[in-house]
Amino acid sequence: MITILSHILPAITLFAAFLLLPASAVATLPRSSTQQNSSTVQKGSTLQNGSTAQEGSTLQALPFKGGESLSYAITYQWGAVNTEVGSAELILNYSNGIFNPVVTGKSTKFWDRFYKVRELFESTFREKDGRPLTFRRDTREGKYFVENNITFNNKDYSIECKVVRKGTPLPDTTLQGTAETYDLLSLFYKVRGLDFSKVEIDKPQPISFVIDREIYNLHYIYHGPEVKKIKGVGKFNVLKFSLMVVTGEVFSGKDYITLYVTDDSNHIPLLFESPILVGKVVGVITKWDGLKYNLTSQIK
Q: Which residues pair with 98 in a beta bridge?
């Protein structure tokens, strides 16, 4: 059970950070510390509220504003077992053209006795083009802990990584990113700004992010709109996505994380379901505040 918990509970924040790619159907590609990509920065037109889109891209006006907050409950389900194991919260700060999202995750008091989890992800990115500036991670999972301090150079797209693992600083690393390499949180907000009516259904779309001195090149798949009942919240018009998980101790590599986000101008994640070798992990939104637009996706 502890082995399972060691993968379930970190999902508390990875849900609120990785799921935070409201795009998620994903075939995992090789990760690389020297990612090469032929994509180039294209001249863009300025949108409302200062955001900038690439020519021919699917970016639209920003669907969020400073002061937005989202809260989630994370549960583990296996047959008749349905128990809450943790929670996650995402708060979006804003000042002088810079957004500062902060994600915190923690295990419940009951599960703290078996495997205590405390997670913090924090990022800064520019309002004008969504490009990341800094990323910080502070993860405490049982006896394991790791810290990330990552800085992005938006002139040459190099990425400076400082990582401390179990109290020991690892050698500083410089990675070569591209104009499309982000951290998890800035990538989440970038994807939220996409106009999915222009994204081809069931076709893999590439994404790239850095964490722990590695650049990960993935793809997400958009499955289209549907109506979904979210337990404890209500019925919504949603957009559905899915993410292939990496084979490991708990994930078979054959299953997908399924993700549902609101089909309105906010694009906030409502629900995710992640099968594991024994049971599944489910994350459900419990509270939202400070949304930029009315939640018109909710069916009353």
A: 95, 126
